[in-house]
Amino acid sequence: MLKRIAAMTMAAALAAAAALSATAAKAGPTLDRIIKEKKMVVGVAPWNRFVLLNPKTGEYEGFIADDIRNFEQMTGIKVQFVNTTWSGLVAGLQAGQWDVVMSGLGATPERATAVAFTDPIGYLSSTAMVRADSPVQNFEDLDKAGNVVSVVTGTAAQQFAQRSFKNAKVTPLSDTAAAVLEVMQGRSTAYIGDSVSNALRAEERPTELRNVRFAPDKTEWTSMNHAVRYGDLDLVVFLNTYVRAMQLRGWYRSLADKWKLPPELATGPR
């Protein structure tokens, strides 16, 4: 009798283990299709030194573009780029136009109500881009009545500006070029963007633009992440396996060095 009970118990345990294994191995429809077809459609928005289409070569270049190619090589999954605007990234994801957003989208509580984020691949803080002859030196100089702050719709910088500026007027615009042009032509006092991009613009146009860093208690850090639909949480697990392995190997620091980006991109606030 005892032998029979033991045999039944063992059989039940093996059946449960097999069921659990089968459940754990089953991917959702999106990830299952990606793995079977060896193809993943990715939405990106133009971002200099991160993911930008070179019209001469027809290839995407930058920190994120290199990371995507490394992902392709390691997984055997071909990535199809779809170019869009920053404001269209989440809407396109939800509409099923692409499987993943891979444009360094910042993970914020506001965006988390719409999409699920992977672990970070980088970190940025918010700074102000002003004209080289501007008297603005800090956050307090900028947050005054009569000042106009331009931002790009759909970015973490827009959310930061709308939360933080109490006196300056925040004006959302469709793209970065338009927002920076507002500053250069004197219609905006400053453009609020990420610390890396603003530093690069100031470096490229030192006689026209200047990057103003805010005090630690006046700026806001955000992470750079991939994003998927909440129905594809298994895809987050899959992508995180890659991201965590690359973090441990120092891959993102090497990419920052290659593209002459500040070390804080890989390390974050300290």
From TrEMBL:
<feature type="signal peptide">
    <location>
        <begin position="1"/>
        <end position="27"/>
    </location>
</feature>
<protein>
    <submittedName>
        <fullName>Polar amino acid transport system substrate-binding protein</fullName>
    </submittedName>
</protein>
<dbReference type="InterPro" id="IPR001638">
    <property type="entry name" value="Solute-binding_3/MltF_N"/>
</dbReference>
<keyword id="KW-0732">Signal</keyword>
<feature type="domain" description="Solute-binding protein family 3/N-terminal">
    <location>
        <begin position="39"/>
        <end position="263"/>
    </location>
</feature>
<dbReference type="Pfam" id="PF00497">
    <property type="entry name" value="SBP_bac_3"/>
</dbReference>
